[in-house]
Design a protein that fits this description.
Chain lengths: ~325, ~325
């Protein structure tokens, strides 16, 4: 009796520990990383200035990763976000140089994002292409469009000062890019967590067939997810172009893999195996904090890449192993 | 499963065929009807990189100087397709042109075409391309010289002393040669210390360099901790400049390489971005035309490589 009891208690303990590891392991690792960086560079890493730098550095990635989360909630991917961010950045810069005015220029660039997202969505939801293939192809096409549009050069001359509002100006002590990021986070969180639309998107990700049989318009919903992702990529491209005050035809490309990595990291946090906005945001922060901290510690640039890869693997492995037990 | 595999294949075929379509070579520029009797000399320029503004400029200058010699110059672009490039070289060999010019692009990736030219006895010249089998001569900028001169400018601008950060990209042989020569130049100044060599990721070098600079400014928080930033090309120099300006730090001098238009605009503002260096593509094209003209008259060049110095771009 007694033996039985103690066995079941240890088993229960182990189960509890597993569950904790699965749900909070990555977050604990993130906190540990912050503690280590603060101990190694006391007064520098946690200085208000550096914290502001970090939030500013992650803002653009956070925008893309947040809207990427929506696509991944329905079980798809969008590989075109980086190229699309470059394209919308090039378009907004050119529009402003042409003198269409700040808000019309921004509107046109966002429209480019929405139309591109619509196109991706049509290919995937209505023409039945896999998201991987469809967005791989459109990624190539969007990259080509940016290069064609700019003839491979950088657009910078004649962008009006007013355009600095998105990526370089501050509201009080807070960078505007961070405010834009927060707005995207809050709106997307609200849509995914608090609305029927969000429930439906999660239902499709859980089981598209069952959702269809339950009467959901699966196609329209998947299409919507891609439009949201396209809009997010375009917004990120606008903020990036404002931050660099110049449009480079491939500037947005690193955003694609990093945003997917952030969503995967987020899937290992708080909830089991589901993409969600809060997790994605912590994933983005984790990537940003790691890059900033390793830079401040002056770790070799090549090793930084290795460490980033290893941390992502560890996070995913840990939550995977804990789940298998 | 099978279906998605078939679709994947279909899509890949589609992508490849699309890429192929865009690589259709533009018609060679028509022979100048008004050209004098020497128009019997035809020079074929083949390039994989006409979409690149610098390549385009260099080749247009070559065309200009070539036509001044009364040559018939044809230009063929394969849009980064090296396989097509080999075919176009073979076409030029079949047409028995007098000389073939490679407009950039690594000869190691087109040996089959070059061997065909060699077998037919048609001389091949490199315009900022490289050396290889059958390449009589390559004219180029010396990356080492570009690196050395910008490093020298930076060292003098900071008074020969202080901490310097280098933004590098060693996997690129040209940028690596620049960085090695720059490091050697800094070593001539005993009071200059290269405190960090930072690898800059591409694509997205401007934002990457901006973030890296922001972090390095945090790691070295006092004015005077960093005297200068040397960048292997202009994009990271732009990112560094923006981070320094946003942080309100003074006394840091930034230099880049390539003399791009955005770098020139930044240098003209008189901020941290103090200098860049431009490759002299006009000089390269001009001299290559002279070398080919001499070669066709029977004068063999003394060496298989000619290096043209860069032109420093500063605020003055």
């Amino acid at each position: 009796m007694q033996a039985d009891n103690s066995v079941s208690t240890t088993a229960g303990l182990r189960q509890g520990a597993n569950r904790w590891l699965r749900v909070y392991g990555t977050f604990a690792g993130f906190v540990a990383m912050i503690v280590i960086f603060s101990l190694l560079r006391p007064g520098v890493f946690l200085s208000p200035n550096n914290l502001r730098n970090i939030t500013e550095q992650v803002a653009i990635l956070a925008i893309v990763a947040t809207t990427m989360t929506v696509v991944m909630v329905v079980g798809d991917f969008d590989l075109s976000v980086g190229a699309l961010a470059s394209l919308s950045g090039v378009v907004v810069a050119d529009m402003l140089i042409q003198g269409v005015g700040l808000w019309p220029g921004v509107g046109i660039a966002l429209l480019v994002g929405a139309v591109a997202g619509l196109f991706n969505g049509l290919l995937v939801a209505y023409f039945g292409l896999s998201a991987f293939v469809a967005t791989l192809a459109t990624m190539t096409a969007f990259r080509g469009l940016s290069l064609f549009y700019t003839n491979g050069s950088t657009l910078f001359s004649g962008i009006p000062e007013s355009f600095k509002i998105f990526g370089q100006s501050f509201t009080g002590p807070i960078p505007n890019s961070v405010l834009i990021m927060l707005a995207v986070l809050i709106v997307t969180w609200f849509v995914l967590e608090q609305t029927t639309l969000g429930r439906r998107l999660y239902a499709i990700g859980g089981n598209a067939q069952a959702s269809y049989l339950a009467g959901l318009n699966v196609r329209a919903l998947r299409l919507t997810a891609f439009v949201i992702s396209g809009l997010g990529a375009a917004l990120a491209g606008i903020v990036l172009t404002s931050r660099l005050f110049s449009a480079h035809p491939t500037a947005g490309e690193p955003l694609m893999l990093n945003s997917i990595a952030a969503v995967f990291l987020g899937m290992t946090m708080f909830r089991e195996g589901e993409p969600h906005v809060l997790g994605t945001f912590v994933g983005v922060l984790l990537l940003g904090v790691m890059s900033n901290g390793l830079n401040i510690l002056q770790v070799n640039s090549y090793l930084q890449l290795v460490l980033t890869g290893v941390i992502i693997l560890l996070a995913v492995l840990l939550s995977g192993l804990a789940r298998r037990e | 499963m099978n279906h998605s595999f078939v679709r994947l294949l279909l899509a890949l075929v589609l992508i490849v065929s699309l890429a192929g379509c865009t690589a259709v070579a533009p018609a060679p520029s028509a022979g100048d009807a008004a050209a004098p009797a020497e128009a019997s000399i035809t020079v074929a320029v083949v390039t994989p990189y006409m979409a690149n503004a610098t390549t385009k400029y260099a080749i247009e200058q070559f065309e200009k100087y070539g036509k001044e010699q009364g040559w018939n110059v044809t230009v063929t672009d394969t849009n980064a397709d090296f396989n097509q490039l080999v075919s176009r070289i073979e076409d030029a060999v079949t047409q028995q042109v007098d000389a073939i010019v490679l407009g950039m692009g690594d000869p190691a990736q087109m040996t089959k075409g070059l061997e065909a030219a060699q077998a037919a006895g048609i001389p091949v010249f490199g315009l900022d391309a490289g050396n290889g089998p059958g390449v009589v001569l390559n004219i180029t900028s010396d990356n080492g010289q570009l690196g050395k001169e910008t490093a020298h400018f930076l060292a003098e601008a900071i008074g020969g002393k202080g901490n310097v950060i280098m933004f590098t990209h060693d996997p690129h042989p040209g940028v690596r040669a620049r960085a090695e020569a720059a490091a050697a130049e800094f070593a001539n100044y005993p009071e200059i210390t290269v405190i960090e060599k930072k690898h800059i990721e591409v694509p997205g070098p401007v934002d990457f360099a901006r973030n890296a600079t922001q972090d390095l400014l945090t790691a070295y928080p006092n004015d005077g901790d960093i005297a200068g930033i040397w960048a292997g090309w202009d994009e990271p120099a732009l990112g560094a400049t923006q981070a320094i300006e946003a942080a309100g730090r003074s006394g840091i001098v930034v230099v880049g390489i390539d003399g791009t238009d955005f770098a020139r605009a930044e240098i003209a503002k008189g901020g941290p971005f103090a200098a860049s260096i431009a490759q002299d593509f006009d000089g390269m094209a001009k001299q290559l035309v002279e070398i080919i003209a001499a070669y066709l008259k029977g004068e063999k060049p003394a060496s298989d490589s000619v290096q043209i110095p860069g032109v420093l771009v500063t605020g003055e």
